[in-house]
Structures are given as C-alpha cells and as structure tokens.
C-alpha cells in the first residue's frame, strides 16, 4: 500500500490560479463591507464568472465538476487568497448549506430547475434550519408544513440564517409529523408568496455575510419542491451535515496559513530591544504552535476530501476537523493579536477583523461542544449524543 500526500500537477496549477484571482480581483473592500455590514455583490459576480459558485456541481448542470478532494484544495486556496472572510462565507453557505443538498437528494427535475442558476451565480443559496428555540436540537423545530392537495403550506420563523437576506433559494426544514420521521425538507424560492425577510441581524463576526430572520406565513409550495422524501428531512440533514462541517473547514485552513505568514513577516521585520521580535522565544513558540495546528488541520481536511471522493462516510472525521480547525483558527487569531501588539487591536488594521471573523467559526455548523458530543458518541461513549 502506498500513500501520496502530494498534489497533482493539475491541482497545483488550480491552487495557484485561485490564489492569484483571489488576491487580485476580490477582497479589496473587505474593511468597507465589514464596517457597513454589506454584501460584496461585485465580488460575488467575479467569483461566479471565475466558476467558484459551481465548483462541485457536475458540468451537465453548468458547474466545474470538481471531485471532492479537488474542491477541498480549491476552497482552501480561496480562503488563503481572499481577505474578505464575509464574501468567502457567503460562498460556503451557498455551496455547503444549499447546493450539496440538491446534489445529494434532489430529483432530476429539481436539479435541472435549480442547479444551473446556482452554478452560474445567478441564484444564491441558503439553508433555513435554525429557529428561535431550535438550533443544534433539530428535533425541536416548530415550523410546520401542512399538506393541502398538491401543495404544502409552511408556517413558522427561521432566524440566524446566513445569506438570509440575499438568498434566492432556501432549503427549509419543517415539521410534517412526529419524531425523526416528522421532518421534511423543502426547496423554497425567495419570491414565494407568504415568505418574507423580517430583518437583517447585526453580528460581530463575518459581517460581510448578511444574516437574516425569515417568516413563513401561509407560504405555499408545490409538492414537487419536497427535497428527498416526505418525512426524510432528518436523514437528509444528517447525511449532508458532514459535507458542511468538513468542507467549510477548508477555507479556515487557508486562513490559518494566511495568518501564520502575516505573523512571520511581522516578527521578522519588527524590532524591539535591538532584536527582531521572532528572536524572542515567547513569540517564536506561538508561531510554532500555529504551524503545528495548520499542518494537522490540513491533513485531516484532505482525508475528508479523499473519503468523500471514495464515496465513504465521514461523519466522525468531519466533526473532528470542524472542532479542531475552528478552535485552532481561533487560537491562531488570538496569537496574531498578541504578536502584533497594539496593531492587533486597531480597528482599521486587518488583524482585529480576522479575530472577530474567527469567533463565528466555533458556532456555525454546530458548536464545538456539539462536535465533542458527536465525537464521543461515535467513539462509543455510552449516553453521549
């Protein structure tokens, strides 16, 4: 048995192309969009034209048809090259909280209807699961869907929805019965009567990704918009969450490398007490820890890409990489603040924004404590959930 950790020539060239694009054409107004809590529409269009919005979508639907491992490598390069973490997170939600659901569970008619627009970026996707009283506890959802003839009528409130105010298509989870078999997923276009955006929610992290609250009031969708099977929403959620958790970690790994390189450059040129900052052990050890976490996170990330490329489950691995990468990125951002001193907390310099943008990583896709529960349960710990 042989193991090869090197990228193929095609993957190496793709990575370099993505980094060059991200540095040159997007992210230049990251501070402005962060300050104003606005979505970078020009950046989105540039990403769509470059093909990012359709990376994992098959070519027959207008996408790039990247295999899972190549997609991981591409997303890592995007996170490394783009300074606007808010724009990157919009793309992540589009791909891993909407597109992947259609790819894995959509009918041929649904794929033909929605995937071309999602691939070319004319449609923005979002995932409407969380409610005021239900987040990690999926089975506590209170939004309902009632069958009326050939249609379903949805009533309820969804909150903390990333891409919520800008999305054109939502994957909506609603209760259609009792227990695990009482959840159903629906494809709901944003212009469906009875669906409205109640408000945009201000937040501390990834402020360039609009977060919204949605209200469904007699929102009627055709039965053809049921995603998967009636009552199959819980299975759909659990079978796609490993993609969201595992593949969203890719851009975080890219950010870890960007932070490390920024810190190395700073401590190499900044002098105190007549010597470069990096010559002080207290400083160099922080950077050593950043490097260790980066390498370990990347190895686990690529393993997930390989597992999904082989068509295998990665529920445990995705929880591990979600936990380790998000916590490691937070540690790296805190280390970057310490290394930069006063420059690390000044609002018009990027390190402060990097730290704030990292805070959300330990929450979305399931908090770190939820990941520990998943890991413990899959390790065989009795009573763990």
From TrEMBL:
- Needed co-factor(s): FAD
Which Gene3D superfamilies does this one have? Answer: Acyl-CoA dehydrogenase/oxidase, N-terminal domain (1.10.540.10), Butyryl-CoA Dehydrogenase, subunit A, domain 2 (2.40.110.10), Butyryl-CoA Dehydrogenase, subunit A, domain 3 (1.20.140.10)
Q: Record's Pfam families?
A: Acyl-CoA_dh_1, Acyl-CoA_dh_M, Acyl-CoA_dh_N
Instruction: Tell me the keywords, alphabetical order.
Output: FAD, Flavoprotein, Oxidoreductase
What PROSITE patterns does this protein map onto?
Answer: ACYL_COA_DH_1
Q: Which family does it belong to?
A: Belongs to the acyl-CoA dehydrogenase family.
* Protein name per the record: L-prolyl-[peptidyl carrier protein] dehydrogenase
């Amino acid at each position: 048995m042989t193991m090869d950790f090197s990228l193929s020539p095609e993957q190496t060239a793709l990575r370099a192309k993505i980094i060059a694009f991200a540095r040159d054409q997007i992210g230049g107004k990251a501070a402005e969009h962060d300050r104003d809590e606005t979505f970078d529409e020009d950046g989105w269009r540039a990403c769509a034209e470059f093909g990012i919005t359709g990376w994992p979508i098959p070519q027959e639907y207008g996408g790039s048809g990247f295999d899972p491992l190549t997609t991981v490598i591409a997303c890592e390069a995007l996170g490394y090259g783009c300074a606007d973490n808010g724009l990157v997170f919009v793309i992540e939600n589009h791909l891993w909280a909407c597109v992947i659901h259609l790819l894995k569970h959509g009918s041929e008619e649904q794929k033909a209807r929605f995937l071309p627009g999602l691939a070319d970026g004319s449609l923005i996707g979002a995932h409407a699961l969380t409610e005021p009283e239900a987040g990690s506890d999926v089975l506590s959802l209170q939004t309902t869907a009632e069958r009326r003839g050939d249609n379903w009528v949805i009533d309820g409130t969804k909150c903390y929805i990333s891409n919520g105010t800008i999305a054109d298509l939502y994957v909506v989870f609603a209760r259609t019965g009792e227990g695990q078999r009482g959840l159903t997923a629906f494809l709901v276009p944003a212009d469906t009567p009875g669906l409205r955006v109640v408000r945009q929610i201000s937040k501390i992290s990834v402020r360039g990704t609009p977060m919204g609250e949605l209200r469904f009031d007699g929102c009627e969708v055709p039965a053809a918009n049921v995603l998967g099977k009636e009552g199959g929403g819980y299975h759909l959620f659990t079978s796609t969450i490993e993609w969201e958790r595992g593949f969203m970690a890719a851009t975080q790994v890219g950010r870890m490398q960007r932070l490390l390189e920024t810190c190395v450059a700073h401590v190499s040129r900044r002098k105190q007490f007549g010597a470069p900052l990096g010559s002080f052990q207290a400083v160099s050890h922080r950077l050593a820890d950043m490097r260790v976490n980066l390498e370990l996170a990347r190895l686990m990330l690529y393993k997930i890409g390989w597992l999904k490329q082989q068509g295998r489950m990665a529920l445990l691995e995705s929880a591990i990489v979600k936990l380790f990468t998000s916590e490691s990125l937070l540690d790296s951002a805190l280390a970057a603040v310490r290394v930069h001193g006063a420059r690390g907390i000044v609002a018009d310099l990027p390190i402060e924004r990097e730290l704030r943008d990292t805070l959300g990583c330990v929450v979305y896709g399931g908090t770190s404590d939820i990941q520990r529960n998943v890991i413990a349960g899959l390790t065989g710990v009795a009573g763990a959930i």
